[in-house]
UniProtKB/TrEMBL annotation:
The lineage of its organism: Bacteria, Pseudomonadati, Pseudomonadota, Gammaproteobacteria, Oceanospirillales. Keywords: Signal. The keyword Signal applies. This is C4-dicarboxylate TRAP transporter substrate-binding protein.
Amino acid sequence: MPDITQAISRYLVPACTMFLVTVGTLEVANAQETYTLRFNHVLGPTEPFHDGFLKWAERVEERTDGNLKMEVFHSAQLGVEEDIIEQIRQGANIGQNTDAARLGNYVPEIAVVNGPYFIESMQDVTKLNDTATMQEWREVLAQDYGLQVVCFNWVQGKRHFFTNEEIHSPADLEGIRVRTPPAPIWQESVRALGAAPVAMDFGDVYTGLQSRAIDGAELVYPNITAGGLGEVLDYAIETGHITLVNFEVVSSRWFNGLPEEYQDILVEECRAAGQDASSKMEEAANEAKAELESEGMTVITEIDRQAFREAGQKAYEALDLVETKEQLMQEIGK
């Protein structure tokens, strides 16, 4: 009669082996997959938005137990904005801080958000987010162009003209070459307000002013101090002609590949960080303005504001956005 121990071993060992293999397979299957988002922006490391992006990344990593990481790159370290957006469209795990002007290259009507004297406050931005028109545009960007808008409540504040000439009205800007980003609404806005637009990347503004390729720029105050542009500019003209609303975009393909819980966390923390960063921008603008004045920059507040507002309307006419503007004004109750 065979040894009973040998008989048991003959059947028990294979069974135990199968059990261990099965458990190991289940552990691998149940292991949390990790994701990485490389987030690019053109602003310098001392600007309030950079700190806001870092806080967004920190909160996302905390809430996902480190399974969704955001690596933040300032000063266009990953590349210029337009190139990054094209990489995003192809599905790359990259994010970009951008604006309605550049998104208008895909959905032309959305560029209206970047028009002269369009958005005036954070309340307007919040209302705009809830409009049927904006929801439709976001859907088109995601479905047709692969650009998922995570949120767009990052408001940099009011943009002004910064020049080496004293300006009080649109007529005074005639012949003044002003840097703009390379998008139609930017160029038409600057042209409507009286200046000659020159498309140029933000990182080239300092050398552009030094070489006299441009005579000025239109930016927010913290851009001027962060870029050291007070060294090559004499006047700040407080036109407040554009309240710049930033959109945070990622690849639709990459976003849809995240667990639904992670999608929600990415959106929620984007909105929270954007709200906080936007509230700090006004304070940062005041501090930057005071610093520039102490260094000798002349701030001009006595301008023909009504003339600038009326001139700005020509940008909407040039791009056939008058009806779009009126529709959105109606939707946000203005």
